[in-house]
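Below: protein 1.
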Amino acid sequence: MRAAPASLIIDSRTLHYDAQNPSDLERTLETYDFAADTALMERAERGIRVLLDLRVSKYNLGKRIDIDALLGAKTKKRVLVIGQVETDAAIAFGCDRPITNNDLVRLAVAENPDAQIIYKPHPEVLHGTRAGVSDPAGGGAPLRHS
């Protein structure tokens, strides 16, 4: 079962995931003098703290877990690969070429050969509300699901 959206994104230039065209947000990030706006930066810091303290996330799955119990003791660098819904428009329009979760894991392994690669499936794929296309855990890469 899908949930109704709790937010709206309004952009006069393009969709927020369109990598081919600049968005209002990109234009603001490129041109606004954030360092000069101390009131805005203080407000942003307070907002970030509230979100972190309340553990608010896109899916609000922020239950506390013991990372060492889940992944074992940290003995080397860890790289988290965050799975995507591969059939989502954000992948079709947000990438310069088609890419799968398997590709993301292979890239992480290639760029970090001595690291522990941790793959986290997208919550909608994990819970069966969206279909997964690839299975990075079955691709032979040394993975740990979280």
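Below: protein 2.
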Amino acid sequence: MRRLAIEGVWLHSPLIHRDERGSVLEWFNGEEFRKSVGHELTAAQANCPVTRRGAIRGIHFADVPPGQAKYITCAAGAILDVVVDLRTGSPTFGRWLSVRLDDRNRDALYIAEGLGHAFMALSEEATAFYLCSTPYTPEREHGIHPLDPDIGIDWPAGTTPVLSARDAAAPTLKEAERDGILPSFRATQELRLSRV
């Protein structure tokens, strides 16, 4: 696993074994994960969204504690997976990074608690799989508008974004910060240290 530019984000590029039957890969290995990230990933829920081209899911995040970490891969098609640092007090607050996940490279992305997560389907249809460290709990779940110009995510040109009603009504990053719903960097660091 390789650490990316925002603290708490890791990319896993699996070894793919191919032969005349097809291929096999290990998209998650608990021991490798623990050695790289420094703690276990307890999977409390697994999700499988199937998304059409141009649809954006997110930017989603959960209250910390307990937060919700995610480990995501794309099983069919392709997605642009985006992570936004929503942790107030973080040195990279408001910054984002993106990774293409698809059914060719088979990469997986780990996103720690307190970070915002979104993705857009790049193929006609994309099937993603992700493990969540805590179950979906509506009263602790929040969103930031994925087209917030202050964040400025570089979504692919030539595609009209399709948003759910919930995501279209989500506040901007500035509004969420003003309303006090963003997680703090300190709280996420305390959570991380409690697991070491």
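Residues 2-15+25-195 form a domain with the Jelly Rolls fold (CATH 2.60.120.10).
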